[in-house]
Amino acid sequence: MFETIKRLISGKNDHRKKLGASKNRDIDQSQDASSSSLMKSNYQVTSCLSPGKERSHNEDALFTLTAALDGLETSATFGLYLVADGMGGHQSGELASRFAVNAASKFLMDQVFDAYIYDQQSLTDEKLRSLVSEAVDEAQKLVQKKVPGGGTTLILVMGIDDRFFFAHVGDSRLYIIDRDGKISLKTKDHSLVKRLVDLGEITEEQAGSHPQRNLLYRALGQSDPFEPDIDQFSMQSGDSLLICSDGLWGVVPEERISKIINGYDDLDGCACALVDAANQAGGPDNISVVLVKRTGS
């Protein structure tokens, strides 16, 4: 299982689109056949990443996996999606993000995927929230052990049919886009400037150009203990979610992100259009995008 997970992790840049954008398609064609009346939920997934215009290396890592079991008497859908944005310099940042994604995804595959898909166990919301939190703990332990002095953000989303759970540390973001095209932010940045905005000391506009806008007070790898943000949400058929690093949201306004998403029918084109928009805005940082759309009943 461990070697399989390592091969699924994507953190390298692959120049396949203009302006340095690349895509990693993870769409299960069998899930796309929504004519199966037994399928309660289907997920369509794609991802796209780029080192940006100003950096020669990529310190982001991402992971996407979607699986479905469909039979005469039972059906189950499972999805796991992660983005990590490394910090601490070229080698430290790249390793920290990769180890974080590796540890968290492996833990949830071992603890949830096998139990739900193969053993068909009934997992309560409380149990799943606890396991998501433990996955972050595993990532923290591995980053501290393997990359002392390095750090990374981490956001993970796990889907179980129509139930979704997420954990969040740092300033990578999760957005929900409903079937009517309305976008909403589900995460809160663990950054100094966000705290200053919340305290009313600076405005959102000032935060965008603040000299300490990249300073985080919560991230994997830090020595001080912390609690990740854990939450649960649901998505209706036609709703989508976006997971991204600050290489996207830091240079492309939310209104523009929403316009791009609502302007595309296919996820592949949409993901790469978002990355292209970040590069066109200067591409000062690595850019990672994961898009997931829920289909089915």
| Oligomer designation | single chain
Question: Which topology does CATH recognise?
Answer: Phosphatase 2c, domain 1
Helix content: 25-40%
> In CATH terms, what is the architecture?
4-Layer Sandwich
Let me know the average pLDDT. Answer: 85
CATH C-level category: Alpha Beta
Over all CA atoms, what is the radius of gyration?
Answer: 18 Å
Total count of helical runs of at least 4 residues: 9
State the fourth-level CATH superfamily: PPM-type phosphatase domain
Poorly predicted regions: 1-39
Terminal CA distance: 31 Å
Number of domains: 1
Report the major sheet: 6 strands, antiparallel
**Residues in β-strands, percent:** 25-35%
Give the beta-strand count. 12
By helix and strand content, what is the structural category?
Answer: alpha+beta
Order of helices and strands: HEHEEEHHEEEEEHHEEHHHE
Spatial strand sequence of the major β-sheet:
1-2-12-11-8-9
Describe this structure in words.
- The protein is of the alpha+beta class and 297 residues long.
- It has one domain (2-295): Phosphatase 2c, domain 1 (4-Layer Sandwich), CATH 3.60.40.10.
- 34% of the residues lie in helices and 27% in strands.
- It contains 9 helices and 12 strands.
- It has helices spanning 2-8, 29-32, 90-118, 125-146, 192-198, 204-207, 246-249, 254-262, 267-280, and strands at 22-25, 42-50, 60-70, 75-87, 151-152, 154-160, 163-169, 173-177, 183-185, 229-234, 240-244, 287-295.
- The chain has a 6-stranded antiparallel β-sheet. Strands 3, 4, 5, 6, 7 and 10 form a 6-stranded antiparallel β-sheet that branches.
- Strand 8 (173-177) and strand 9 (183-185) form a beta hairpin.
- The chain is globular and about 55 Å long.
